[in-house]
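task queued by scheduler; priority normal; single chain, no ligands, no partner chains; default sampling; output format set to structure tokens
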Amino acid sequence: MGFEVVATPDLPTPGQFSQVVKKGKFVFISGQTAKKTADAGNLDPRAQAREIFEYLKAAIAAAGGKMADIVKINVFLTDGSQFPAIMELRPQYFAKPYPAATTVTVASMVKRELVMEIEAIAILD
């Protein structure tokens, strides 16, 4: 029993993984980072969070869903002080009831310029 790889040109090209996979009603979105913002040298957590949420929006749309279908997000921050940026933007992308969420701080991301990463799970109607 395999799964479907969902491709979209709206997401950065991945390495040896799929950005979005779909199995039945379930959609798994790999951790997204703010590649464009970080590559431009912008370490602002709000700018990076906005880019990531836009990637999540594009990913779920490519899978045939909408942001309201996302039931769980996992947020990885390099500094706990970045948390308010996530909380400020969440209502712009998610309506109540909000998805379940886990937020943790990590020592670092793969690239120094990246300050956060967000992955998501959705269940389509």
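post-processing summary
- The two ends are 21 Å apart (CA to CA).
- The domain at 4-123 is CATH 3.30.1330.40 (60s Ribosomal Protein L30; Chain: A;).
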